[in-house]
Automatic annotation (TrEMBL):
Organism per entry: Parabacteroides distasonis
GO cellular component, one term: cytoplasm
Keyword Cytoplasm: yes
Gene that specifies this protein: ftcD
Compartments in which it is found: Cytoplasm
Domain Formiminotransferase C-terminal subdomain: 184-298
Signal peptide residues on this chain, from the entry's feature table: none
SMART domains referenced in this protein's UniProt entry, alphabetically: FTCD (SM01221), FTCD_N (SM01222)
SUPFAM superfamilies in the record: Formiminotransferase domain of formiminotransferase-cyclodeaminase (SSF55116)
GO biological process: L-histidine catabolic process to glutamate and formamide; L-histidine catabolic process to glutamate and formate
Name of the protein described by the UniProt record: glutamate formimidoyltransferase
Length: 301
């Protein structure tokens, strides 16, 4: 048991999902550190992306994250990078999430401290996003990332896209990075029994909020070449307001119009227990069920 007074979570996404040696070096700064605990990391070859989940005391977490960012900036060259997931940086996005004993305001402050250090130490342009955004139009990560690494070479020179920290020039190999504070996010993918990417893309457009779909839902179509299928890759930005089962069922409903079946789904990284209990309760038809009835939840009290 740790005796931390404050627990902050960070889920940095790195643009490397294939080279295991590089992945080990990027993850290394999170191992065996006082005040920091590596909870999970997963790499996806199709996405060519690494997602790390780490928690810790704010000061210790800050130092570990900065060290890992430095390793990624040194090792990853986006001029040689390709993958199914959009990306604008070697370190693409770094969100901080308050977990215990700390507030969203503290997460915002920490994200700005890290952003300033990244810009100064590594000469990587930093955009603040979500709760840390310096303007409303910068809250949405997709808006910042639009154009990706290649397009950012010109985009960053536009006055409205001047970085919050660091040089107003895209790093030649590491690109740019978005850093911010947010609610816990669930990365949830639904796999479809077809190899037609346009079908997954069309479904994604229909279920995401910006396309008239579910609130707190972002989605895109992704091709899984090695498996010969496609998936609807989803980010649930507030699972307490839009449940996982709603996204799953809406994908299944929309897939019917193409004669396509759902063949499975997956969660990337960690997920709050409440999100899974809510979904299990729905499919089991449980009446008046609450988290107080979950053994593990009561055991941790």
């Amino acid at each position: 048991m740790n005796t931390w007074n404050k627990i902050m979570e960070c889920v940095p996404n790195f643009s490397e999902g294939r080279d295991l040696e590089k992945i080990d070096k990027i993850v290394a700064p999170f191992r065996a550190k006082t005040g920091v605990k590596l909870l999970d990391y997963s790499n996806d070859e199709d996405h060519n992306r690494l997602v790390v989940t780490v928690v810790g005391e704010p000061v210790a977490l800050k130092q570990a994250v900065l060290e890992a960012i430095g390793v990624a900036v040194e090792l990853i060259d986006l001029n040689k990078h390709s993958g199914q997931h959009p990306r604008m940086g070697a370190v693409d996005v770094v969100p901080f999430i308050p977990i215990c004993g700390c507030t969203m305001e503290e997460a915002i402050a920490l994200s700005k401290e890290v952003g300033e250090d990244v810009g100064t130490r590594y000469a990587v342009p930093v955009f603040l996003y979500e709760k840390s955004a310096s303007a409303p139009y910068r809250e949405n990560l997709a808006a910042i990332r639009k154009g990706e690494f290649e397009g950012m070479a010109e985009k960053i020179h536009q006055p409205e896209w001047k970085p919050d920290f660091g040089p107003a020039e895209r790093h030649p190999t590491a690109g740019t990075v978005a850093i911010g504070a947010r609610m816990p996010l669930v990365a949830y993918n639904v796999n479809l029994g077809t190899n037609q990417l346009w079908i997954a893309t069309d479904i994604a457009k229909k279920i995401r909020f910006i396309g008239g779909g579910l609130r707190y839902c972002k989605a895109m179509g992704v091709e899984l070449k090695e498996r010969g299928i496609v998936q609807v890759s989803i980010n649930m930005t507030d699972y307490t307001r839009t449940a996982l089962y709603r996204a799953f069922e809406l994908v299944r409903i929309e897939a019917r119009r193409y004669g396509v079946s759902v063949v499975g789904s997956e969660i990337i990284g960690l997920v709050p227990m409440e999100a899974l209990i809510d979904t299990a309760s729905y499919y089991l038809g449980l009446e008046d069920f609450s988290m107080n009835q979950v053994l593990e939840a009561r055991s941790m009290e």
